[in-house]
Design brief:
Distance between the termini: 61 Å
Strand content: under 5%
Helix content: over 70%
Radius of gyration: 25 Å
Structural class: mainly alpha
């Protein structure tokens, strides 16, 4: 399989190879793919946590008295306009 890299990627790859840490482009690609996989897993975990917490947050917001919420927003707006 052949890849075409842009100039920036070619320079990056050359720097990595010349550092001695990697000996082939394949080693660089394998590490990049493993990092991408790890990133994707962390993103999925984050997304799941957000979804779970969103349900709790919505339930909490529904319990807040609307008048209190509006009063708080008005106070913050006045503070922002005064500063």
């Amino acid at each position: 399989m052949k890849f075409k890299f842009n100039r920036r990627h070619k320079i990056f790859i050359e720097e990595k190879l010349s550092s001695g840490r990697y000996h082939t482009i394949e080693e660089i690609i394998v590490e990049a793919l493993e990092l991408l996989e790890e990133h994707d897993k962390k993103y999925e975990q984050w997304l799941e946590a957000v979804r779970n917490n969103a349900d709790v947050s919505i339930a909490e917001l529904e319990r807040i008295d609307n008048k209190f919420l509006i009063a708080q927003l008005e106070r913050k707006l006045r503070q922002a306009l005064e500063s």
